[in-house]
Amino acid sequence: MIDVRRLTLCFVVLASVTSCGAQSSSQVERVTTLEAVSDESNENGELLLAKVATLDQPVDAASRIGDEAIYFVARRGTVHKFIDAKLDSEPVLDIADLTEGEGERGLLGLAFSNDGATAYINFTNRDGDTTIASLGVNRDGVFARESLKTIIVIDQPFQNHNAGDIVVEPSGMIIVPMGDGGSADDPLRVSLDDSSPLGKVLRIDPRDGSFTILARGLRNPWRVDLYQDRLWLADVGQGKFEEVSALNDLTKITSSPQIADFGWSAYEANDRFNKDQKSIGHTPPVISYQHGDDGCSISGGAVAVSGSLIYRYIFADFCSGRVWSIATNEFSPKMTLHFDGLDSPTAVVRANEKLFVLSLNGTIWQIRN
Ligand SMILES: [Ca+2]
Ligand SMILES: [Ca+2]
Questions:
Q1: Ligand with smallest separation from the Cα of 108
Q2: Residue 195 CB contacts under 8 Å (≥ 6 apart), including other chains
Q3: Domains of the chain and CATH, by start
Q4: Which residues sit with Cβ closer than 5 angstroms to ligand 1, an ion?
Q5: Which run of H or E residues covers position 6?
Q6: pTM for the whole thing?
Q7: What is the pLDDT of residues 131-160, one digit of tens each?
């Protein structure tokens, strides 16, 4: 069976290749300026990928109210400001001493509070455990490292499946998708067990770290996007399927009877998986695709809010380098292929209403349409 070990190996090999090349120099290469893609060249509405920056292992991006900058996250532990088409090689935050950006670990997610004055980060600490922390951010976008406060630490039994994203609800609560703890095949049977925070979507109160489970049955929901009260989850699959799932009416979920059950590890997509596991009211994925030419590891995903892809959810696959979109208002949407063969896309993210595709090998592309 093709399992997570193959995927982990994939990441590890790529990670070491990248580190071999970049270790001795500074963590971030100088920005290569945009390819010659002007607005005029895009008159016919053709979808373009424009290389806008390079960064050592980019994995996430975020923006905040009243700030034109976009903040890119480098897995080794730094955050970099991108403004006026330039990425600042000098980080606005450096927590490389608190994490280890290897395999599926590192600084993995960033989001801002609704007033933009606080940053929330999701990283694996030196013990490999998921750590959610907050920091103050000034008007110029400089993060006050000395203000870093740990909100919650969640034990990770294995090195992989740390998911790592983070988003903020209108209420100010933070939403964190959690993987199943790792190894392969949900060995600890935690994803459908509500006594564990693993394999869940958590709503965390940033004031005290208390949390509520909003969904269960996830394997490694690596990137999420919250758009119009729906949480889009790209859940990395085991041996056969990659999945996009949606958690509807997020803000209305307040108590356990409403917990959505995405099925893992009783199901992988719509296939029965661990026979000893039971899913209560299995919510099937919005779409799933099989391992093969389409790939082997989904790199979600964000909803476009402008251009020809408006209101479509865009996602990629790390193994095939394909980028697709699906309609967000259809019950059973079809995948439309837009790009093929990109180098190791780790995520498709939206920040300040723009869409970016991030490559583990360093390229940041903007999708222009
Ligand atoms: Ca994110
Ligand atoms: Ca599922």
A1: 1
A2: none
A3: 4-368 (2.120.10.30)
A4: 60, 165
A5: helix 4-22
A6: 0.88
A7: 999 999 999 999 999 999 999 999 999 899
